[in-house]
């Protein structure tokens, strides 16, 4: 990786670019690549609530969370981002989760035109290191769309295993998601 791309923690000045990237990557990866035909009102509701500048402001301001970005230094654009932090039973509903003690990967997205450049792998390594530092000895949880086989394979490579299922709300629509867990690194 050359100096063109920088991996860094996002800050409040990044919220508008993060909101745009979040909406773009969600649309590319779920609506287009996986052909999910959400009702427009449900998709709009989800993106307004979970991809808004306000959502990113709250997430970046939360000391128990980290938002990491990959920034193209030539034009200032973000090409990938991830959100990690303390686990929450409301976001990952599994009976074994220890809210606020276990770690969680909430999002990891790479723009379609920047996939296969290694950004996802490098971002995952950054996030897992951050989670290990802040939630040492605890498992890491995530959810993934059941039809996103590429993401499931990616997460399995990092030691995540399917441990449950749930219906993730996108407005009134429900996506069938898998719950995955990576056992604690005890070394």
UniProtKB/TrEMBL annotation:
One Pfam entry name: Acetyltransf_1
GO terms for MF: acyltransferase activity, transferring groups other than amino-acyl groups
Gene3D superfamilies the record matches: 3.40.630.30
Protein name: N-acetyltransferase domain-containing protein
Entry-linked PANTHER family: L-AMINO ACID N-ACETYLTRANSFERASE, PUTATIVE-RELATED
Superkingdom, taxonomy of origin: Eukaryota
InterPro entries to which the protein is assigned, alphabetical: Acyl_CoA_acyltransferase, GNAT_dom, MshD_Acetyltransferase
Species of the source: Adineta steineri
């Amino acid at each position: 990786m050359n100096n063109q791309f920088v991996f860094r923690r996002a800050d409040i000045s990044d919220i508008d670019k993060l909101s745009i990237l979040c909406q773009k990557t969600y649309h590319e990866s779920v609506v287009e690549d996986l052909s999910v035909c959400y009702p427009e009102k449900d998709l709009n509701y989800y993106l307004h609530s979970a991809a808004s500048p306000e959502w990113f402001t709250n997430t970046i301001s939360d000391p128990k969370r980290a938002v990491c970005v990959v920034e193209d230094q030539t034009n200032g654009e973000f090409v990938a981002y991830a959100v990690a932090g303390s686990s929450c039973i409301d976001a990952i509903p599994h009976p074994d989760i220890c809210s606020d003690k276990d770690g969680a990967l909430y999002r990891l997205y790479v723009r379609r035109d920047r996939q296969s450049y290694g950004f996802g792998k490098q971002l995952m390594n950054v996030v897992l290191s951050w989670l290990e530092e802040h939630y040492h000895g605890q498992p890491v949880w995530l959810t993934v769309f059941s039809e996103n086989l590429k993401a499931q394979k990616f997460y399995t490579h990092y030691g995540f295993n399917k441990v449950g299922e749930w219906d993730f709300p996108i407005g009134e629509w429900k996506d069938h998601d898998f719950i995955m867990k990576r056992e604690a690194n005890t070394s």
